[in-house]
Amino acid sequence: MIHSIPNASIVLFGATGDLAHRKLFPALYQLYQKGHMKENFSVVGVSRKEFSHEEFQAEVASAIHEHAKGADRQIVEKFASHFYYLKMDVTSEASYHELEELLNVLDRDYQTNGNRLYYLAMAPKFFGTIPTFLKSEGITNTEGWQRIVIEKPFGNDLPSATKLNEEIQQSFNENDIYRIDHYLGKEMVQNIQVIRFGNAIFESIWNNKYIDSVQITSSETLGVEDRAGYYEKSGALLDMVQNHMLQMVMMVAMEPPGELKPEHIRDEKVKVLRSLRFFSEEEVKKNVIRGQYSEGNMNGDQVPGYMNEDNVDPESRTETFVAAKLFIDNFRWTGVPFYIRTGKRMAVKSTEIVIQFKQGPMALYHANTENYQPNLLRIHVQPDEGVSLTLNAKPKGDTPDLLPIDMTYNNNSTAEMNSPEAYEKLLHDCLLGNSTYFTRWDEVALSWDFIDRITKSWQDGTGSKLTHYPSGSMGPEEADELLKADGHSWWEPTKVREEC
Ligand SMILES: NC(=O)C1=CN([C@@H]2O[C@H](COP(=O)(O)OP(=O)(O)OC[C@H]3O[C@@H](n4cnc5c(N)ncnc54)[C@H](OP(=O)(O)O)[C@@H]3O)[C@@H](O)[C@H]2O)C=CC1
Ligand SMILES: O=C1O[C@H](COP(=O)(O)O)[C@@H](O)[C@H](O)[C@H]1O
């Protein structure tokens, strides 16, 4: 449900950066132009560059015109007038005094009641420093609420994430820490819960009696682009699996919450991670595939391999692709493999979840037909949004054959054409104090614990070997073999049919 956002000041650390320009300014603008933000808010942009308030407002307006579809010039101007700029180095204690002075004036002018949201759109090395200074310099000491949004990555292993968490918790309560995973803001990821728990026909068969396997694919066509500095140390395992892929696994596998309250939902999600089988080195070798893209053809263009990308070590062992077979050892899921795969420079940009159901007890109709398809429930996360269910039917006429048909719901073709962007939904939620779709510390800690074992076995050389796949393909052959060994194959991403 959409509610109006309370009066508040938003401090945006990293206001001249890429994330602020491409995602955060447009997301805040959308909330404003839809009427969810009234006039009582201010945004203070912080970074080291020299800007007057007016120059910054012009920057904000231009970013919105570039990145928010159909932005209205007059509304943008009015919206941008709520923005202020402070040149400051976040590592310098003294500069926080200027921030406090500015915020005190804005609190009064906009009647914010001292409510403040701090958004850290900065490099992770500053994630501990900023909250420490916000508290020590008394900025968080107001009558209103104080919330902090932390971007990814939250640490790069369990020890570093624990240290960071302890640092932040010196200044903010867990309830006021909003760790962003933008996949949790995606319309269809949030829809998984509704599809499952809002439909008795699915929930009653959502278990190992009826489900054969689950597949989650998140493939990208882009390569590393200009992010080698970060990606070389991260790779696909830390960049995508530790957060987005495991979050989708949790959403598919969680038990129904007692109530639709943040802690009820987050409690159920974390239980999935507690039941996730943590791999031994031998199991990593067997169940986790890592690949790196080599040169290839993307839509007719020849593109370089990862090792030839700018700022990448020509001997790099960084993985740009991961596929894995996961096991959730609990009553509901024992015996159901969860296959996940994600990678860069793959054939298509797509995120799709496929639930494959078991065959019925007797092959009455499909014994003699090649057309038989298992029942599949596909949740199309992006670029199309929707759900489709594959059934077997009788083709027209007098034939004993089977015809697989799709029943489809296309979210893109409903009245509200454009689903809100993930960042719009998440900003809206944290301004309202709703932490449902943010990651709680215990989720983060368990996911790192799971991931660290894989990283360690790769570093020790005992885990799976790095393999290569041509750009423009759907990953290395080893990822296909992983499923073939179980008599499965990857379901290729599909489009949601337009006519439905
Ligand atoms: N860009 C994206 O699409 C995504 C980004 N993220 C995460 O968001 C965060 C920000 O990413 P991104 O916007 O790409 O990063 P950028 O490098 O584009 O921006 C970094 C910002 O930090 C400012 N900054 C750097 N050092 C200081 C300092 N000492 N004091 C004050 N300001 C400083 C920079 O401004 P200046 O140099 O002028 O000081 C700039 O505004 C990262 O944690 C990233 O992992 C997550 C998902 C997607
Ligand atoms: O967090 C990240 O996600 C993007 C993919 O996000 P999507 O919404 O476009 O699917 C990925 O490209 C990036 O490497 C990673 O840091």
UniProtKB/TrEMBL annotation:
InterPro entries: G6P_DH, G6P_DH_AS, G6P_DH_C, G6P_DH_NAD-bd, NAD(P)-bd_dom_sf. Catalyzes the oxidation of glucose 6-phosphate to 6-phosphogluconolactone. Residues 11-191 form the Glucose-6-phosphate dehydrogenase NAD-binding domain. It comes from Fictibacillus norfolkensis. It catalyses: D-glucose 6-phosphate + NADP(+) = 6-phospho-D-glucono-1,5-lactone + NADPH + H(+). Keywords: Carbohydrate metabolism, Glucose metabolism, NADP, Oxidoreductase. PANTHER family: GLUCOSE-6-PHOSPHATE 1-DEHYDROGENASE, GLUCOSE-6-PHOSPHATE 1-DEHYDROGENASE G6PD. It holds the Pfam family G6PD_N. Pathway: Carbohydrate degradation; pentose phosphate pathway; D-ribulose 5-phosphate from D-glucose 6-phosphate (oxidative stage): step 1/3. Residues 194-491 form the Glucose-6-phosphate dehydrogenase C-terminal domain. Its EC number is 1.1.1.49. Substrate binds at H182, K186, E220, D239, K344, K349. Belongs to the glucose-6-phosphate dehydrogenase family. One of its GO terms (molecular function) is glucose-6-phosphate dehydrogenase activity. This is Glucose-6-phosphate 1-dehydrogenase. It comes from the Bacteria. NADP(+) binds at R48, D89, V90, K152. The active site is at H244.
